[in-house]
Design goal:
single chain; 5-stranded antiparallel β-sheet; 7 helices
């Protein structure tokens, strides 16, 4: 029996937040090509903005010009490697950009087939049947300590090391993303976000906002507003992708 095709809709909002002088987050997406990317840059001066923008561009260009000869996740991993190399090389050529890098979380979809990739602590979630599930795993020092049983979630929230990430694009010559294979169902809602959202809002609060029956761009704006009301200590980016029949 043939299964109905899944169609997608998307929206995104990025915001400087209430404390940062500039926005070092970046995003890009193409509904036509099934590619959605969020990056959170880091580095002095404008280096973080350069790293995140470069990563988005290096992901979007090849993935929206594919010839279809390779599987989509394989092409995406190649794009991550190219983005990493582009940022690393740019930083090597300029002393003021030295050490710049960026996190990355991406969603790739082909009909019902979906994949999430991540490097760093920007996250990917799926809301299904009103339940929010974090798909990606943070590449952070506190997350590693939690997995090793050296720290619990409450301690992690209070840890002075909570901002230390263990993997990023552009800081090393080589980096590998984690890849999560999923199956999309009509009604699924995917969220890609920078940690400016998840450091301010609990998963349960994000879940409750995502259940509101409003357009996707309104949902993005409500998430950003809630994060700003909770402190807005960092840049905030939300990208929502809804699967529909």
């Amino acid at each position: 029996m043939a299964t109905a095709a899944v169609h997608y809709a998307a929206a995104a909002v990025t915001d400087r937040g209430r404390k940062r002088p500039s926005n070092e987050d970046a995003f890009g997406f193409s509904i036509e090509h099934g590619v959605y990317v969020v990056c959170d840059g880091m580095g002095g001066a404008a280096a973080g903005e350069i790293a995140s923008s470069l990563a988005v561009a290096e992901m979007m260009q090849p993935l929206t010009h594919r010839d279809g000869s390779n599987p989509l996740p394989a092409d995406a991993e190649q794009a991550v490697a190219a983005a990493n190399q582009a940022i690393f090389s740019r930083a090597q050529r300029s002393q003021k950009l030295s050490g710049m890098g960026t996190t990355l979380v991406a969603l790739l979809v082909e009909d019902r087939n979906a994949w999430m990739l991540n490097v760093g602590d920007s996250r990917g979630y799926r809301l299904r049947n009103s339940r929010l599930e974090q798909i990606t795993i943070d590449h952070s020092l506190v997350e590693e300590q939690i997995r090793l049983g050296q720290m619990n979630r409450l301690e992690a929230l209070r840890s002075p090391l909570k901002n230390v990430i263990t993997r990023a694009l552009g800081t090393q010559n080589l980096v590998a993303p984690d890849v999560f294979e999923l199956e999309a169902e009509p009604g699924d809602l995917f969220l890609l976000c920078s940690d400016g959202l998840t450091r301010e809002l609990s998963d349960s609060l994000i879940e409750s906002i995502l259940q509101l029956d409003v357009p996707l761009d309104d949902l993005c704006s409500r998430l950003v507003s809630a994060a700003n009301e909770a402190g807005g200590h960092d840049n905030i980016t939300c990208l929502l992708v809804r699967a529909g029949a």
